[in-house]
Amino acid sequence: MSAFNPRDILDPRAASGSDSATAKDRPAAADEDELPRMGFFQHLEELRRRLMYSIVAILVGFLAAWRWAPQLFDFLARPLREVLPPGQNLAYTTLTEPFMMYFRVALLVGILAASPVVLWQLWMFISPALYRREKRWVVPFVFFGAVFFLSGCAFSYYVAFPLVVRFLVEVGQPFQAVITINEYLSIATKLILALGLCFETPILVFFLARMGIVSERWLLAKFKYAVLVIFIVAAVITPSADVATQCVFAVPMIFLYLLGVLAAWIFRRRDVPATPAA
């Protein structure tokens, strides 16, 4: 019984065991010999190791951010405080709520600060399933992955989140606002991390194209379905139900999808036939 290799899931030809490789297929077969074979429990051990390194990096970022947790929360609360009526502020209802809020703020900043390390550990986990020619993309993957993730977080804080906050506060103007710090932080964290992950779409599309799983023609043929999925995701992560706010989230994601299509066209594998656009 051959050892488990996650590349077999992505590339059925690698698991077929066919000995009738043509001369055209010999380079791929030679590359396949470069892949280390790991058993199932070895993959679990590797996953545990990468998770531990990621957790340690997040913990270091958390400890560094804990000292400035009050100032960091003031920065996060700025979009709301700018639209609240004069004399109103955030509130808390239990004695432990401020402490937990500062804990969560420091944890959020720790995750953002450790994102390059987390991406590096993700690459190290999947690298055994990659060919040698694909492993050279490690630096672009970590660099652009961190850039896109942090750009998504920044877009959420400076553009999308203030629009959501303004809309919700205006809807509740006839009433006395009692917004708790943990409730506000939950919405802010959800939107910031969600858009950060959504901004990774070009990176995901790029690597799917490099592995020959998708092509630019296939991605363009499925564009209408991608738009539908994007608006569903925007509706899920947006606290408000108005279409205008959802478009603020959806339009950048559509642009990122098209950017991924462009990357798939520029960097597509030349040795793999294009995926049919059916």
SSE blueprint and pairings:
Blueprint lengths: L6 H4 L1 H4 L10 H7 L7 H27 L2 H13 L15 H17 L1 H12 L5 H4 L2 H34 L9 H18 L2 H10 L5 H6 L1 H15 L5 H24 L12
Short characterization:
The protein has 14 helices and no strands. The protein is mainly alpha-helical and 278 residues long. It has 2 domains: 157 residues, no CATH class; 79 residues, no CATH class.
The helix tally amounts to 14
The shape, in one word, is: flat
Overall mean confidence score, pLDDT = 80
Distance between the termini: 36 Å
Number of individual domains: 2
**Major sheet: size, sense and barrel closure?**
none
Please tally the β strands and state the result: 0
Write up what this structure looks like.
The chain is an all-alpha fold and 278 residues long. It folds into two domains: 37-193, no CATH class; 200-278, no CATH class. It has 14 helices and no strands. Helix 4 runs antiparallel to helix 7 (115-126). The longest helix is centred in the middle third of the chain and has 34 residues, at 138-171. It is flat, with a radius of gyration of 23 Å. The chain starts with 6 loop residues before the first helix and ends in a 12-residue tail after the last helix. The model is unreliable at 1-33 and 274-278 (pLDDT under 50).
Give a quick set of tags describing it.
mainly alpha, 14 helices
